Amino acid sequence: MSDQGATPTPTPAPPPPTGPRPKMTNRGRTAVPISTSNTESSEIPEFEPFGLPGPRGFPPLTDYLDILDVDMKRRPEESNKQQHHTMLYNSDYLVVRRGQEFEVKITFNRPYNPASDKFAVEFVIGSSPQFSKGTYIPVFPNKERPSPWEGHITNTADNTVTMGVTAAATCFVGKYHMYVAVVTPFGIRRTRKDSNRDLYILFNPWASADAVFLDDEKEREECVMNEMGIIYHGAFDDVAERNWNYGQFNYGVLDACLYIMDQSDMPITNRGDPIRVTRKASAMLNSRDDEGVLVGNWSGDYTYGVAPTSWTGSTDILLTYASAKMPVCYAQCWVYAAVFNSFLRCLGIPSRVVTNFYSAHDNDGNLKMDIILDENGRIDRSRTKDSIWNYHCWNECYMSRPDLPTGFGGWQVVDATPQETSDGMYRCGPASVQAIKHGQICFPFDAAFVFAEVNSDVVFYSRNKDGTMEPVRVNRTHIGRMVLTKTPGDMTRREITDQYKFPEGSTEERTVLEKAEEYGCKRDKSELPVADVDLILPTLEISVGDDFDMSLEFVNRSDELTSTEFLFRNPTVTIGPNKSVKESVTVESKNYMKHLVEQANINFIATGKVQETGQIITAMKVVTLHNPKLIVTVSEGGRVNEEMTATVEFTNPFSYSLEGVYIRMEGPGIMLAKSKYYSLIQGHTSLFWTEYFTPQRAGSSRVIASLDCPALRQVYGQASVTVQT
């Protein structure tokens, strides 16, 4: 110990940390260890004595009721799975939904006598089951003793008793183990632990007492039961679509979803609340701060993983994450949304993928997309920080919101794409769609961020030589131009823009913006003069690799002769009073192909300056380049458990060869994901790939396929399939 005032010896700096970053938690304080694993469980003793054994031990129990067999009625054709809408889950175990009765058959060594025989069905979840925590639930027939779950005997025949059990509509979602316990004078004896008596309990949108109850059968069928999705992309005036196999019923997917919650260190006791589950999962679906499911990549280089455009479904991603126990490469917004959708539907939370065209990423939270122009009208890219996605995908899930005022339940936005941190982690939501529409952006969670994605203004600023900036043009209608999702029960699109905002310029919209401003969103209120000259860019249909002309139309709405400078080639265009002039710019493929990323879009931003008035004119246009298609054909006369074939045909339309080509193919309920690699496809040559598959169930489905290589992304094809019994 040094004397007071003496200089202490400096402590050397600790070495830099190595290994994976620690997981972030918001668990708070706790007196005992919290169970966060659904795979771990404790052994419950087969015999629990009421007292100490006598000198000869416990007497024989052969005279008392004994359990010989337990039938979980888990086969798909039995009533449990049929009534619980879980018959499609490819699982070895019983899958049921909370808030709804299911049955188990118990065979005793003799007929059950309710007057003298006492037994209970016990359910446990997690590593330290406790009655007080809701992780140990004994269920007694005919309400003999109080229990949070209901139970009653529905049938007796000889030595067999059929017990009806209704899990509480608020119980924890996950994998439970069931025991049957019999009371004897000397103690309780129960069945040995046997994995055959494991069961999964899910959220139940069919039960009115469940927080995810959705009282619309068509929406339920679409947003819980449908495995085939359509994800919209491209531009708002040239919408493209890709098919996606959510695969929420495929073998192993349910376990993978529960593993994701385990990896998040989410307490078992939080897993009955869809608000907590979806918020935690929106963080876990990306890998940014918690070693979650998917690694984002927007670089164009996907050497050490699968290109985002190559995926055709969620199954491979989820099973790979659960088996490798490390993040899967790579994803962009629609992959995050699609896999998140599989997670939500698998657990029973109604969900859908939504696409917002011209989606704002407001970096500074001012509800404005600030585009900085230099003194000549050119975009100053070093100072322009805000970004506009030509489209962005997120999810909506359906639930009540008891934490919000009445009226803000229903569809909630959740987004797993890592854009901004929320409470210290990369996640977003759940944010009430109704709150977003009505400007109530103070409500949790992240409503202000989503509000900006659909409501921001695009403000062009002119930066003067002295560094000052002044607004020169405001576009109040560019952001959130259109919001789409799939139509329930149909393979068409449905526009839901009106669910997010009122019509542009309406009285309701102005009221909403005023409400949002009360909570800190500041809009640009500059009253700028109407431009004398408009700049119009056309809608074009262009294929990848084509040269094309971009025609710019200048319209002079004034009574004066004006000359306008525009900056593709710096010419001057002279326009007569109330006249228009067209100027064409040739865009050659050799100039854009090397810069074309996987979305195959070219974003044109044309800016100009009217010499006479100094006014800035601008126009923005996304031109979607159309890729070649895959031709997918499926053999006719499909039947369950009978072999079929699917063939993919592709012709390289270019004069140059395509290298490092991957083709993927899969179909909901009929074919697991398959892939094939081609090192080279020469120019103007064709390939054919045929795969055999055996459909496992009847009905309508699709085989979807993708082709992907560094030189060509987003090549898709699909074929409809009808399988008979």
Automatic annotation (TrEMBL):
Binds 1 Ca(2+) ion per subunit. SUPFAM superfamilies: Cysteine proteinases, E set domains, Transglutaminase, two C-terminal domains. Ca(2+) binds at N455, D457, E504, E509. It is an enzyme of class 2 (transferase). Keywords: Acyltransferase, Calcium, Metal-binding, Transferase. The keyword Repeat does not apply. Signal peptide: none annotated. Residues 33-42 have a biased composition (Polar residues). Residues 1-55 are annotated as: Disordered. Gene3D superfamilies: Immunoglobulins (2.60.40.10), Transglutaminase-like (3.90.260.10). GO terms for biological process: blood coagulation, fibrin clot formation; nervous system development. Its EC number is 2.3.2.13. The keyword Cell inner membrane does not apply. One of its GO terms (molecular function) is metal ion binding. This is protein-glutamine gamma-glutamyltransferase. Belongs to the transglutaminase superfamily. Transglutaminase family. It comes from Eleginops maclovinus. Residues 9-20 have a biased composition (Pro residues). Residues 325-418 form the Transglutaminase-like domain. Pfam families: Transglut_core (PF01841), Transglut_N (PF00868). Its cofactor is Ca(2+). The active site is at C333, H392, D415.
